[in-house]
């Protein structure tokens, strides 16, 4: 994938938003200070964001120069999603005695984030005022970047950005897919998904990647894992258009695992399973019971062991449907679902026998998870594994103030969002939980530790830095 940068020239009469839209369409880097008329004595502000093209988990260095000393300014970011929605973030800064601002050194005194936060302009993004209710920012087309316009304005602003002229603007591209990563549709032996293969001769270690009860095919985390050197299959199950009870049986997941394991670009015996939410229940089940899918290590994010998939599909579906009666709507009409798995059963047959897991296991939980009682589940898992003598295989990352949707770093936090329930296809506002800053910290810390865990237990050398 080859890239070039081009400067877009435009009339100063064009509005800031029009300029940003034109720049984004051309995938170029722009500095609007170039377009502002100046006297022979004036020095135009300059804004830079490096690298301009990067993976989504790579930090940005944003620097503004040629400002007045001790000038109040606002750094502002905006992203136009594939669904035509707009997300924004902003921070208030005061330039130093040299007229410079650096997000890696200077603190934001207000806005959507405060303090020294190099990536605050991304993780604190939220829908612009007047947007549709219950939005969640998710990348669908991983073959294209997230284009984020970053601007600097004079003064400390909180609104009206589209009506003001920016002092300068740069355009950045945030990618889930590194150059050379192959994307391959999987439609084989009844298995549906997408395979991502890193560049190079291979073979590589591999990860089977599963999302939660929302169903469908979600590719962006798998693409990012492949960008870090793992052959990764994003698995589709619980499909909204053709939901069947067999979609939640173990046979489908075992076939998916074997399909990945047997791929010529995959190192035999070096396959991990990673699941979030219901995908974690699948992961627990495979690790504990499967004779044909035996992962080298497993990662479970925001999951529980109270739904063992080694039961019959109809029995499991009936139990899940009965437990939905424990969910309730809070004062904001948000669905709180964590109590559907409380109290944690004491009967061994109602839980995955995690004491039978024989591979290293990492569990990631947010202590403010309002969707599943993951904290209570993890405590029970720890006790079960200790009693069984395999507690040494368990690593727990537990984050105060984090919610259910622990995603790759710098993904904007959403406390609630629209969700279609599987049991009755009802649209609800699901409460995921979490507070923005603690949740952002949890995403960054857990992602780095997940990558290290995978590299360590799949017998990789020190993970290479994947860069664009």
From TrEMBL:
Residues 251-459 form the BAAT/Acyl-CoA thioester hydrolase C-terminal domain. Pfam families: BAAT_C (PF08840), Bile_Hydr_Trans (PF04775). Residues 57-188 form the Acyl-CoA thioester hydrolase/bile acid-CoA amino acid N-acetyltransferase domain. InterPro entries: AB_hydrolase_fold, Acyl-CoA_thioEstase_long-chain, BAAT_C, Thio_Ohase/aa_AcTrfase, Thio_Ohase/BAAT_N. The active site is at 277 (charge relay system), 369 (charge relay system), 404 (charge relay system). Belongs to the C/M/P thioester hydrolase family. This is Uncharacterized protein. The lineage of its organism: Eukaryota, Metazoa, Chordata, Craniata, Vertebrata.
């Amino acid at each position: 994938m080859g890239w070039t940068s081009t400067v877009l020239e435009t009339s100063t009469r064009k509005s800031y938003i029009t300029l940003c839209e034109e720049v984004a369409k051309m995938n170029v880097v722009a500095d609007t200070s170039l377009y502002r008329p100046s006297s022979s004595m004036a020095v135009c502000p300059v804004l830079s964001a490096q690298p301009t093209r990067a993976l989504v988990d790579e930090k940005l260095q944003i620097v503004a120069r040629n400002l007045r000393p001790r000038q109040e300014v606002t750094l502002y970011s905006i992203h136009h999603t594939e669904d035509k929605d707009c997300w924004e973030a902003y921070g208030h800064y005061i330039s130093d005695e040299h007229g410079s601002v650096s997000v890696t050194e200077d603190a934001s005194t207000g806005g959507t984030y405060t303090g020294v936060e190099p990536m605050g302009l991304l993780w604190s993004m939220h829908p612009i005022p007047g947007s549709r209710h219950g939005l969640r920012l998710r990348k669908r087309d991983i073959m294209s970047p997230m284009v984020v316009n970053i601007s600097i304005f004079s003064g400390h602003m909180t609104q009206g950005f589209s009506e003001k002229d920016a002092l300068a603007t740069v355009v950045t591209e945030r990618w889930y897919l590194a150059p050379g990563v192959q994307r391959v549709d999987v439609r084989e032996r009844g298995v549906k998904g997408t395979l991502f293969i890193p560049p190079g001769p291979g073979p590589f270690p591999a990860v089977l990647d599963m999302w939660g009860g929302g169903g469908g095919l979600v590719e962006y985390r798998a693409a990012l894992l492949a960008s870090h050197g793992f052959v990764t299959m994003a698995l589709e199950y619980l499909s909204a258009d053709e939901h069947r009870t067999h979609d939640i049986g173990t046979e489908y997941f075992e076939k998916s695992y074997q399909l990945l394991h047997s791929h010529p670009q995959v190192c035999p015996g070096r396959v991990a399973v990673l699941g979030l939410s219901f995908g974690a229940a699948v992961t627990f089940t495979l690790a504990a019971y499967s004779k044909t899918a035996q992962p080298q290590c497993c990662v479970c994010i925001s999951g529980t062991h109270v739904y063992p998939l080694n039961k019959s599909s109809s029995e499991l579906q009936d139990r899940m449907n009965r437990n939905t009666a424990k969910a309730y709507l809070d004062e904001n009409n948000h669905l709180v679902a964590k109590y559907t798995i409380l109290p944690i059963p004491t009967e061994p047959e109602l839980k995955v026998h995690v004491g039978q897991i024989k591979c290293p296991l990492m569990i990631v939980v947010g202590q403010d998870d309002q969707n599943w009682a993951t904290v209570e589940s993890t405590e029970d898992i720890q006790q079960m594994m200790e009693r069984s003598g395999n507690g040494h295989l368990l690593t727990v990352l537990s984050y105060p103030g984090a919610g259910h949707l622990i995603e790759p770093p710098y993904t904007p936090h959403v406390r609630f969002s629209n969700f279609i329930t599987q049991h009755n296809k009802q649209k609800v506002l699901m409460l995921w939980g979490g507070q923005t800053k603690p949740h952002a910290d949890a995403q960054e810390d857990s992602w780095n530790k997940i990558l290290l865990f995978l590299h360590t237990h799949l017998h990789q050398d020190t993970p290479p830095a994947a860069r664009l």
